[in-house]
Write a structure and sequence with these properties.
- The complex is a heterodimer of chains A (465) and B (499).
- Chain A is mainly alpha-helical.
- Chain A has three domains: 128 residues; 143 residues, no CATH class; 149 residues, Alpha-Beta Horseshoe (Leucine-rich repeat, LRR (right-handed beta-alpha superhelix)), CATH 3.80.10.
- Chain A is 46% helix and 5% strand.
- In chain A, α8 crosses α11.
- Helix content of chain B is 34%, strand content 16%.
- In chain B, a hairpin with a 6-residue loop joins β13 and β14.
- Chain B has 13 helices and 17 strands.
- Chain B has two domains: 43 residues; 364 residues, Alkaline Phosphatase, subunit A, CATH 3.40.720.
- The chains are: A mainly alpha (465), B alpha/beta (499).
- Chains A and B meet through α11 and β1 of A and α12 of B.
Chain lengths: 465, 499
Amino acid sequence: METVLNIFGHLHPLLVHLPIGVLLFAILIHGLSLREKYAFLSNALPIAYLIGTGTAILACLTGLILSNSGEYDETILFNHKWLGIAVAQVSLIGLFFTKKRFAPYLKIISLVLLILIFITGHYGGTLTHGEGYITKTKSAVVATKTIKAALTNTQELVLYTAIIQPILEEKCYGCHSQIKQKGKLRLDGEEWILKGGKDGVIIHAGDPQQSALYHNITLDPLEEKHMPPKGKPQITEEERVLLEWWINTGASFNKKIKDLTQPIQVKSILTSLEKNNQQVKTTEVPSEKVGPADNNSISALQKNGVTILPVATNSNYLTANFITLPQTNDTIHSLIKNISPNLIWLKIPGMHFSSGLAKSIATCTVLTRLSMEHSTITDNELHILNSLTQLQYLNLVGTKISLKGLLGLTAIKNLKQLYIAQTSITKMDVVVLQKNFPLAKIDFGNYTMEKLATDTQILKAPLRK
Amino acid sequence: MSKVNNRIIQEANEQTTQQITRKYFFKECFSGIGAMALGSMIGGCDWLGSKDGMGSYINSNPLMAQAPHFVGKAKSVIYLHMAGAPSQLELFDFKPDLLKLDGQDCPQSLLEGKKFAFIRGVPKMLGPQVAFQQRGQSGAWISDHLPHLSTVADEISFLKAVQTDQFNHGPAQLLMHTGSARLGRPSIGSWVTYGLGSENSNLPGFVVLTSGGNNPDAGKSVWGNGFLPSVYQGVQCRGQGDPVLFLKDPAGIDRDIRKASIDAINEANKLSYEEFKDPEIIARMAQYEMAFKMQISVPDVMNINDEPAYIHEMYGTQPGKACFANNVLLARKLVEKGVRFVQLFDWGWDSHGTDDANAIDIGFVNKCHSIDKPITALLLDLKQRGLLDETLVVWGGEFGRTPMQENRDGKTMPFKGRDHHTEAFTTWMAGGGIKQGTSFGETDEIGYSAISGKVTAHDMQATILNQLGFDHEKLTYNFQGRPFRLTDVNGRVIHEIVA
């Protein structure tokens, strides 16, 4: 019997929209019927109010059953419950007043009902989606960011407040906090966590597998007890390891990270948390907005065999690849200049270089990636490219450039990757190069592989008697 | 003779009547009251403009380069598939506890309710047949079968708990590459070329190379275009002799005549397209154009003889032969030239232990040695060319192998081998914006089942598309009235290995 009732109760979120829709519609046609042009609509008022009242009563009944589950915040629930009952009652009165002689009263009833529906609906929304659900998406993002920004020296932080609580807040609070307590469980405070839910204690310090808090998140996603429920943001692998570690080390609420033993796996996650925070995310796409590039120049370049397209569908920044074009001419140079505010990635492998080409590339000051491997570029053209201050990736593999030429690029301070295999520059020059390009990872290539017996060895089956 | 002629004429006549009646039917429909209804029905099969925001293809080259949904880290993919499914227990998933159980009967609990391809009755456990060591700074376990790869362990992200639901090669390979174990879906390379087109207008966007003496069990469907226009199917190049057959012009036909005839054929095809709007006509036109360009570009790019000696030394190539090392070197050359997706299949990894060639301690070891050097060389070579950060390298099989020794039909086998295993196996990815030197997912003490970080073929596909700049849920194609996608209704980007 109880389960049947429960199912009935769970229909509330479904049924509740019927009276909202029907009654709002009734109020709408009531409003319209006040104009002479739509006066005939008043004939529909009794039936509209009848259906509205009926479904409102149904919603109240299911709501009352649902409220017994005790998973909701008491004050908000109280407001929602009584306001809902008020909606049903007022619409019932409205139903009586749909008779023609009560027409003036019905206006007041409709107005009151309209206000009641909105307030009740808002409380209902708060119950299911949490406080401030209308604006939540934005503020939630800001909140997680501030937590992550605080992690500079993880060893000095309290494990629970710095790492565990933010995980619970992001993944669990939605159903297990002040607003809602599914399974009679709250996770937004030490006392609640220790108290547990309707199935008892959820944490056994030192034994994650026996702790429901941990065990349930490791269950197969298809199992009913798996948390967070299907469709909600799941616990990531890193978060799982951290939760396991927290319970393993005694589920303390005030110990600092440095006072706890740290397995290798945990250590690497902790350092990655710090790293993620330190690294200012540099992307190879500028954050500044740019207008669309000149379409005629783009199609002219395409006609010449250049592959040129936006870096992403919604971006005006362009990437160009000259792989099928061995040589350029003045027309191409001016076309490159035309799209220079938009061009951020350029590939000209094997290109027959000229100073004209170098000069036109030099106008592309937003360029972040430039591949010129196996081209005929020399120091003469290279020094023209010193204007590319945003360059992060530079590929000069197999070219005739020299150390002196490369050191001439004094303005390119953001360089992150430099490829100079098969050039005259060797590892001996690494110190001076690194000084010039402090952020760059310099790849000199010339990797060799050891000769091993296994390379050529072929095993055969032992001969059988 | 006249009988044959008559049949040909009859067939031609039938086709003409068919076209005329169809033409008549369409004209009637569109002028009649049913036009709207039919229009919406056909709209369901409309292949044009189904990629959101990617514009329409009418009268343009379907292989033209396209922008992805968002800025992707990788521009191309090299997928190394070890057809037959290599043993994770002798390569990456080190299980010392399994060694202790070597030779003992498999506990009943592992067999209950399970079905194996060949194991019957109670098999014996088989410990790892090779020593393992932790490699590099990341401490990844790699066996002594891959001494070269061990030196680049810090470039790689391992997925140790990959799962599948197919225990036969064909369906499992299809699942891995097309997202469905049944025939008929487009392969991942086709999806990628459909989404991104080709960077190099003279080369196909999706090239397939096979080695090991056989094509994969699933046949050419693993690089098929499924319901996508056929221009997106993988172009298989031969490892030996002419890379693509019949690419040379016949004697006495020079290139201008060839160009003129292709232009004339395509003019006629264009008229046909305008009348019938069959997308396959566009595909055919594009293929004629492509074939014409490939006559020049393919012999050049597929020729590894021009590579310097030290490169051959690195990869361990065998010029003139069809072998995995040559294909790996070709893969690098193709990616360098702007090919989007290079798919390699190496056959011969099905180590059941039925003969010495597929014994886990003989033939399997030889296979490992044959891929160790080329794959390592590929990673190092891409790195020194500045290409590794924009080329995603994927390695894997279609499933894993059992911790039990195979006992085909309940009998003892002549050699040591392992049966097909679906519940846990290892694949890896490197480059293309994947984390360096990490491992995701764990198996139990004997490598029988995955306990955390489980991923599926769909998850790997979602991740590959993500690296190229695609939301796998949005790269869709309308077919038979609904949008289809590679990952069907599944797939999660494995953010744990994405840098």
